[in-house]
Amino acid sequence: QVQLVESGGDLVQTGGSLRLSCAASGFAFRMYTMSWYRQAPGNDRDFLASITSINLRTKYADSVKGRFTISRDNAKNTVYLQMNSLNSDDTAVYYCTVPYLGAWGQGTQVTVSS
Fold it and tell me: Number of C-alpha atoms within 13 angstroms, CB side, residue 74?
């Protein structure tokens, strides 16, 4: 079955950086667009970034454009989210997803302290 396992969440100070990873299994990873979302307490789950399967075209939410970078390694079945210049508004649970399959990981917590 499809499995997505996020990792890399941590407590970081304002201005710091983190790299999240999402290890995928159970489907042909290289054939699917992958996305990252996040959900802060009391908020909806918001789109952050996506990367297509073959031509690696990326798309970002305005809130993270220029600070976050999505990438993928098809040989490792892994998608990454490099997050720089973090601030308190970035505190949330971060999820990776395969939109076409409707599959989600369990999430990883990112907390940014001031």
Answer: 12
